[in-house]
Design brief:
The chain has 16 helices and 32 strands. It has 685 residues and is an alpha+beta fold. The protein folds into three domains: 354 residues, Alpha/alpha barrel (Glycosyltransferase); 146 residues, Jelly Rolls, CATH 2.60.120; 134 residues, Jelly Rolls, CATH 2.60.120. The longest helix is centred in the middle third of the chain and has 28 residues.
């Protein structure tokens, strides 16, 4: 990096550097708000599971399709940013983008019809048309998803936030595709989509069609006055109308803008009501392009027998963040005025309010910066994003059960590894400390149970993965364990954190280097002896976090402190002339890596601050600080040369060749954490 472009050319003040980086983080990871959109549930076009391809079951729509027949499937890839990406596909397909053919499977056949098509998504709407051919040897299914270029991987919540949305005007912005008629053979697309279709809705709510043979005996409909208006209702069955919680005494109601109307109807052969066509009513928070059918939300069913005067569900609590429980003890959420049309909440952001460990590192770093700078904006950014995830956690489980995967916080679905538990738990504990949020406390308990019951362990209780142990998992577990101890006032969690580190040391510590291997293989009980920079950084930061937060009389603390000192000595011996550390610490021919440099700076600052390390380490701290400011951070606060999320290998070259990502939260969050610690012991050089 040219010095004139570097952060060092602007400032050497630690707090000023933190402010520049923190402001840039918020700018490049903008906050988002929950948006509600309609969604049509069907077995022709659907999401199969967590970040998996979108399925289009053409055999379901055209059961008599024959070899050579063709169907066109259109979609809009709605992207929050510009991305170089791929479309991963399964099926015999030709792809058109902006009217031009960009891929044909028959020119590039692969095993099991898996293929990838390079594409550049622009921020906003990107229309793509697929021509899908029917083969005799398949079920006429087509699967596809946007993916990062090098992998079969849809990081919807992180580095590739691209939604698959309908090209049909009245479904614009909704998840899904448009499907053409069945063509006998390959012919140009006529531009007409026949599925899904939407009919002209009557001005009525017919609960018989919406809820069918459901167990309960009453259902609700909800709307709001978009302007001052007159609403006329005609009930088909015994009903009650409430306006702003008060019972209306007439079927013709004068409404003021913003008035909230709730209609409760009892189940009969025909139940529900009709409403005046010209009433200016609707759902103001619903993003919908539908021509009709989006004026009311419906919810049901509840109660037994004649329950018109017994309050249920929305009468007791009107909310749109959690599923309700029906009379049959099933979960339900708001629908529109037909059986298969639901509303769903969306968070159209990447990096903000999304359930992913690296993003939590970024959020935690911003929280530390907020404390050092007394910055209320950073605190609000952190607390609002975390609270959003906590509030919608239970709803996310309902979405998993009903739609294959939720619209956001997808990785909260699967709590079978520490990546999905530890940093989320750490941040939720910090949120609980800030706000006493009951939703945060509930999620903390869920994650604590998952950490106890779901994660594989060695016989001595140390965490591992199904086939190996990763140094990363020290940080993915111990800071959360420590905070559980602080919340619960239970020494067990402090002792468990110490035991975990010692279990990792037993298998990964390289005494000759005084560094850690990245992985330990369960099959042959050996470490890979590769000193990956960030892998060591995770351990160093985790140990310093434990030492800062546990009581001094916890059994094993002295042994842990001695390990920290030995580890620090091993680390500083590998610092290069520019003050930085390398991707593989013991390989100076590997690239200078930003996140591990930040992690070592962070741990050394904590060591000096707390007196665990001597003053002589201040020189290493200064060199690391200036090395980062001169070489890895520009004057706008952008962070460079952060190793991307890693797998593992027995081959050093794998780590040497891992690509870097700029402004990745593995780096941004760690740098903010490190400089925040540094600001507690230094201000300016």
């Amino acid at each position: 990096m040219n010095f004139n472009d570097s952060l060092a050319s602007v400032t050497s003040d630690v707090k000023e550097a933190i402010k520049i980086i923190g402001d840039n983080m918020i700018k490049t990871r903008p906050r988002g708000d929950i948006v509600y959109r309609p969604y049509r549930k069907c077995d022709v076009s659907y999401d199969r599971g967590l970040l998996e391809p979108h399925v289009v079951n053409l055999k379901k729509l055209y059961p008599n399709a024959k070899k050579g027949n063709v169907v066109y499937v259109g979609t809009i890839f709605d992207s929050v940013a510009d991305y170089d990406a791929s479309i991963c596909m399964i099926g015999n397909v030709k792809v058109f983008y902006e009217g031009k053919e960009i891929f044909d499977y028959e020119k590039n056949p692969t095993d099991k019809k898996r293929s990838k098509c390079p594409i550049h998504f622009r921020k906003g709407r990107n229309p793509v048309l697929f021509m899908v051919r029917c083969d005799e040897d398949d079920e006429f299914k087509f699967e596809f998803m946007p993916s990062v270029p090098a992998f079969w991987f849809w990081a919807l919540d992180y580095i590739l936030h691209v939604r698959i949305t309908s090209p049909i005007e009245c479904f614009s912005g909704e998840d899904g595709v448009g499907i053409s008629d069945l063509y006998v053979d390959e012919q140009p697309f006529d531009g007409n989509y026949v599925y899904p279709a939407i009919g002209k809705e009557k001005n009525e709510i017919n609960f018989s069609k919406i809820f069918g043979a459901a167990d309960g005996t009453c259902a609700y409909a909800y709307t709001e006055a978009l302007n001052d208006t007159n609403l006329k209702l005609k009930a088909f069955s015994k009903s009650k109308v409430l306006v702003n919680g008060e019972v209306a005494l007439s079927d013709e109601i004068e409404l003021k803008q913003g008035d909230k109307v709730l209609v409760k109807s009892l189940k009969e052969d025909m139940w529900g009501f009709s409403f005046s066509d010209d009433a200016k009513i609707g759902i103001p928070f619903l993003e919908s392009s539908r021509y009709t059918g989006d004026k009311w939300l419906t919810l049901g069913t509840f109660g037994q027998e004649n329950c018109i005067d017994i309050p249920y569900a929305p009468e007791l609590k009107m909310q749109f963040t959690n599923a309700y429980v029906t009379e049959g003890w099933n979960k339900t959420f708001w629908k529109l005025s037909s059986e298969n049309d639901y509303i769903r909440p969306y968070m159209d952001t990447c990096f903000y309010a999304q359930w992913f460990y690296a993003l939590m590192v970024g959020q935690f770093g911003l929280l530390q910066a907020a404390k050092v700078l007394n910055n209320s904006e950073y605190i609000k950014y952190f607390s609002d994003g975390m609270q959003n995830m906590a509030e919608f956690y239970n709803y996310m489980l309902y979405e998993r059960e009903n739609f294959g995967q939720p619209t956001f916080i997808q990785r909260g679905m699967d709590l079978s590894d520490l990546d999905a538990i530890g940093t989320m738990g750490m941040n939720l504990c910090e949120l609980y400390k800030l706000t006493s949020s009951p939703e945060a406390l509930y999620c903390i308990e869920v994650l604590a149970t998952a950490a106890k019951d779901n994660i594989p362990r060695f016989s001595d209780g140390t965490y591992c993965r199904p086939k190996d142990m990763w140094a990363d998992d020290t940080f993915m577990s111990c800071p959360f364990l420590v905070r559980l101890g602080l919340i619960k006032k239970d020494r067990y969690y402090f002792e468990e954190a110490v035991r975990q580190i010692m279990g990792f040391k037993k298998r990964l510590w390289l005494e000759d280097e005084r560094l850690f291997s990245h992985i330990f293989l369960l099959d042959n009980n050996i470490p890979n002896r590769i000193t990956w920079g960030r892998g060591n950084g995770w351990v160093f930061v985790a140990i310093s976090d434990i030492l800062e937060n546990i009581p001094k009389d916890i059994v094993g603390r002295e042994e842990l402190l001695n390990l920290f000192k030995d580890f620090a000595d091993g680390i500083v011996k590998k610092q290069d002339n520019e003050g930085l550390w390398h991707q593989v610490i013991t390989r100076p021919d590997s690239y200078q890596e930003t996140s591990c440099t930040g992690m070592f700076l962070l741990g050394l600052c904590r060591g000096v601050k707390n007196g665990w390390l001597g003053k002589e380490y201040e020189e290493n701290i200064k060199r690391a600080f200036f090395g980062l400011l001169k070489n890895k951070i520009d004057k706008k606060g952008n962070i460079y040369d952060v190793c991307r999320g890693s797998g593992n290998s027995m081959d050093e070259n794998y780590y040497m060749n891992l690509a870097v990502i700029d402004n990745d939260d593995h780096g941004t969050g760690i740098i903010l954490m490190a400089l925040s610690e540094m600001a507690k012991i230094f201000s300016d050089y």
